[in-house]
Amino acid sequence: MPRLFTALEISRDAALSLSLLRGGIIGPKGSVRWIDPENYHITLRFIGDVEGHVADEIVHALDRIDRQSFTLQLAGVDVFGSKKPHSIYAGVTPSPDLLALQAEMERICQRLRLPPDPRKFTPHVTLARLKGLPDMQLARYLSERGNFTTLPFNVSRFVLMSSKESTGGGPYVTEEVWPLRSASFNAGFENGQDVSASNYQFPAGAAE
């Protein structure tokens, strides 16, 4: 059974900026596994493996969320696992709208008696999975990319995604989509281009 989680998509421009962070680490074979750009996302609530009728209840409850769209910006690169680093991620600048949306989803999950997520919510985009990477290589990579930032982008919807249990990091499948109410964001354009996450389509070969 696929694992379910709710998430926010990443805009095309932000995904392109993130893809430029790939590489630059020389380590043992298999010590770094970079996430494909088409799988970039911000996890809101990990749900896990559930029966079909429970999944239906989750979808029905999420249908009731009524919130405005908002803007996000990615900034900084860091690592999870202080003693044994296991993943590199890009951070998200503080956003009350993001926290409010995630908190509402958490309340929904609690009402449905889903197992609590023991991890504190830390909004991020995972860039790579690590296994046995030397500390010196990781420290050098982080020091060279600590000033990473993207332009703000509009979040116009949230999604329910599924993943296979085996490896993590994709491929992910979008199972359901819920739009957020429109809110002003420079008329939804930047430099004459729509930058909403719902219009994300990563250009072929851009991550090579």
Automatic annotation (TrEMBL):
It comes from the Bacteria. Belongs to the 2H phosphoesterase superfamily. ThpR family. It is an enzyme of class 3 (hydrolase). NCBIfam families: 2_5_ligase. The active site is at H41, H124. A motif (HXTX 1) lies at residues 41-44. The keyword Chloroplast does not apply. It holds the Pfam family 2_5_RNA_ligase2. A motif (HXTX 2) lies at residues 124-127. Its EC number is 3.1.4.58. Hydrolyzes RNA 2',3'-cyclic phosphodiester to an RNA 2'-phosphomonoester. This is RNA 2',3'-cyclic phosphodiesterase. It catalyses: a 3'-end 2',3'-cyclophospho-ribonucleotide-RNA + H2O = a 3'-end 2'-phospho-ribonucleotide-RNA + H(+). InterPro entries: Cyclic_Pdiesterase, RNA_CPDase. The lineage of its organism: Bacteria, Pseudomonadati, Pseudomonadota, Alphaproteobacteria, Hyphomicrobiales. It comes from Pseudochrobactrum kiredjianiae. Keywords: Hydrolase.
